[in-house]
Specification:
Helix content: 55-70%
Shape: globular
Strand content: 5-15%
Largest sheet: 4 strands, parallel
Distance between the termini: 108 Å
């Protein structure tokens, strides 16, 4: 029994260490070995059902460092823990505000196990009404106000709604943390209750390092020796939390490196008083060099006499294709040389150096599983950055090679990548492209991946990568802006990626921003983009707060006489065929109750149906559009409150249109024929005994007759208007 307890403690310790490691990777967007979706999965999906997992919260409590200066974290938690409380954390991104918000939720969950905690989406509007709060009890919410951007800004009245939010939260035994920036809060925080925005200081970078190294490092890691070293202390001083975590990563990598493989840094050692006499000194030197991107060391390596382009390309390929077999890297190096226009190395025979010599030439090690590793912390990233700076005219070709790497099967290598290995390589390359795009504020790496991976099995990987990046603090703001630019382009792959991201979790948490991007993508003439747009509209409709804005965009598209019309037709059809969850025979666009958050106007519905009737490809009598017509006729029959509106909408929608369809019929004739077949089908079902109510077939005929009379009245009115116009023209003449 004692042994079982000991094993359980060891397993718990291992779990905690792994969770802390994944938490650091999430905080850093350190996606070299896993993408952010995998980081989420390592916490048993921290956002599962909009709740943060206990594994994530426990890991955060282990490493969270309370800010120094300003209001005490414990004091803030002391009053915020009471039901009905709202706290506003108005700080700049990357200052630890998200960690503080989640730490409050973690403490709440720890003290009150019955309370569930998680994020709360702002919704699709510019305001956050009280009805956005879920009608459940014992909750702790994290609400991030969407960052302001051109065309979308949170309403300046947000602060005035907080008192009502407090009242509703108290009734439901809930609490709320609001994340914003100082600039945004000055604009929206007017009339907010006093005392809800504490003044927070900054966490000590030295304490951040101590907490993380103690939680994640192995038992033999001399934490205090590292954190009392003058050079390490100098590196940490004044650093924001993210930079402190970067240094933690370097310390862990340096500690794991074998002393025999540590580089000779005599030039750097001469600048230190302690020299480089011990393994620990050499580890410290490695961290210092890594913080400077190994620039002097890489320069020396590139300048060495006899250095060949084959070796430089091999270093670049190894740094990029981490985890791939050496044979695949070796063959991919030849492809890279060809892309650059260098002389092609001879991989067959023994004319050019083999893999063992090449691995040695770049200071790497060949592992037992035939993969290549560097023992210098962040050497691979530094090598990539050196190339990026050193070879500006080769960047485009390198990115093309990078995007193609997981798609190609090098013929020169006997070993071929399995599907799993190819997927893993794609994730690593995608992670590299994401890190570089965010760090350098340049879209090129991600743009190349999206264009090259379109219509390939890696497309899902690209969309998942972008979705994850949208939700990460370290990358979110840049990727949001990038997707807005992509939605405005005329490149189908970039537009499709934007639409599919907006249809996913990004659209749930940032509905207003997603709608804005979909509005721009609606101008695409690509069929695949329009189909994805239709699915996105259908999915986002499930958020009541998005419906007013979403429907407004769709109707604007339907009014458009250009490329957005087809997008409007498809989107309106998707909405028109949706039904209320608790009334499956009533279209969702028709009113169901007086308490509905949004009700479409008859005028706008006429615009939407007119666009749908104008479609030249989808309104055959046995097509999708005619099925929607039958659904609405059923609603007119089954729901008396909708009867008059449905018939008015249909008759008005075809009144001024006369497009020629595939069968030579105009829109009015197609509508009349569809309604007639609907009524006849009901009569046939009644005669066959499939409709029990004797008057059912008669009721269908009555609806058809009333619609036909309205259509005839429309013809007469149009004819009279034509005669009146002709008479007016004669008089004018």
């Amino acid at each position: 029994m004692h042994l079982d307890n000991e094993l359980q403690e060891r397993l718990k310790s291992l779990l905690d260490t792994e969770a802390v490691k994944h938490l650091r990777q999430m905080a850093l967007l350190n996606l070299g070995e896993m993408n952010a979706l995998k980081v989420n999965a390592s916490f048993e999906n921290p956002l599962d059902h909009n709740e943060l997992s206990d594994t994530y919260l426990d890991a955060l409590r282990t490493v969270y460092v309370r800010p120094e200066g300003g209001d005490s974290f414990d004091d803030i938690y002391g009053w915020w823990r009471n039901p009905g409380s709202v706290v506003v954390l108005a700080q700049k991104p990357s200052t630890g505000r998200t960690a503080t918000a989640c730490a409050l939720l973690a403490e709440l969950r720890h003290e009150f196990p019955a309370v569930r905690v998680g994020p709360l989406g702002f919704g699709g509007g510019l305001e956050f009404p009280v009805r956005r709060l879920p009608q459940v009890e014992n909750r702790g919410y994290l609400l991030e106000l969407p960052p302001d951007e051109d065309g979308f800004k949170v309403a300046s009245t947000f602060g005035a709604t907080i008192e009502r939010l407090q009242y509703t939260l108290k009734r439901r035994s809930a609490r709320l943390v609001v994340l914003t920036t100082p600039e945004q809060w000055r604009r929206v925080g007017g009339s907010a209750p006093d005392g809800i925005k504490p003044s927070l200081g900054a966490p000590s970078p030295l304490e951040i390092a101590r907490k993380w190294l103690g939680a994640e490092g192995p038992p033999d890691l001399p934490v205090e020796q590292w954190l009392t070293d003058d050079d390490i202390v100098a590196l940490l001083n004044g650093q924001p939390p993210v930079e402190a975590l970067e240094i933690v990563s370097l310390i862990l990598d340096a500690h794991h490196a074998r002393d025999s493989s540590l580089p000779n840094l005599e030039a750097l050692a001469r600048k230190r008083k302690n020299g480089a006499d011990t393994p620990f000194d050499r580890q410290v030197l490695s961290v210092i060099a890594a913080r400077n991107n190994w620039r002097p060391q890489l320069l020396s390596w590139h300048k060495e006499s006899g250095r060949t382009s084959f070796q430089r390309n091999f270093l670049l390929a190894c740094a990029t294709l981490r985890g791939a077999s050496v044979a695949h890297v070796y063959a991919s190096t030849a492809t890279l040389a060809s892309v650059f226009g260098d002389s092609d190395p001879s991989l067959e025979g023994q004319q050019d150096p083999g893999v063992i010599e090449m691995v040695d030439s770049i200071g790497a090690e060949l592992q037992a599983d035939d993969t290549i590793t560097f023992n210098r912390p962040e050497w691979d990233d530094a090598a990539l950055e050196y190339f990026w700076v050193d070879r500006p005219l080769s960047r485009v070709k390198f990115l093309e090679w990078l995007a193609d790497a997981p798609l190609k099967k090098p013929k020169a290598a006997l070993e071929t990548l399995t599907d799993a290995e190819r997927q893993a390589m794609a994730e690593r390359i995608g992670s590299f492209a994401l890190r570089w795009a965010v760090r350098h504020r340049r879209q090129e790496p991600l743009r190349q991946l999206v264009r090259r991976w379109h219509d390939t099995p890696l497309w899902t990987t690209a969309v998942e990568l972008l979705t994850s990046a949208c939700l990460q603090t370290a990358s979110g703001s840049y990727i949001h802006e990038m997707l807005l630019q992509w939605a405005r382009t005329d490149n189908a792959a970039q537009q499709l990626a934007t639409v599919e991201v907006c249809a996913g979790e990004f659209g749930v948490l940032y509905t207003g921003k997603a709608l804005r991007r979909l509005r721009h993508a609606a101008g695409s003439g690509d069929g695949e983009v329009r189909q994805a747009l239709q699915k996105a509209v259908h999915g986002l409709w499930s958020d009541p707060s998005a419906r007013r804005t979403l429907f407004g965009y769709v109707i604007d598209w339907c009014r458009d006489g250009g490329t957005k019309l087809e997008a409007g037709q498809a989107a309106f059809r998707a909405l028109a065929e949706s039904t209320h969850p608790d009334a499956p025979t009533l279209p969702a666009l028709l009113p169901h109750s007086d308490e509905a958050e949004f009700t479409a106007s008859v005028t706008d519905l006429i615009v939407g149906w007119r666009a749908l009737f104008q479609g030249t490809q989808g309104f055959e009598r046995d097509g999708q559009a005619s099925a929607v017509v039958r659904l609405w006729l059923d609603a007119a029959l089954s729901h008396p409150h909708a009867h008059a509106d449905v018939l008015k909408i249909f008759s008005a929608a075809v009144k001024l249109t006369d497009p020629t369809g595939t069968s030579g019929e105009n829109a009015r004739d197609r509508l009349r024929a569809t309604a007639r077949e609907w009524a006849k089908a009901a009569a046939l079902e009644q005669s066959a005994g499939r409709i029990e109510l004797p008057s059912a077939g008669q009721a269908h005929r009555a609806v058809y007759t009333e619609l036909a009379q309205l259509l005839d009245d429309g013809i007469i009115e149009t004819f009279q208007q034509t005669l009146a116009q002709a008479d007016s023209e004669k008089e004018s003449a």
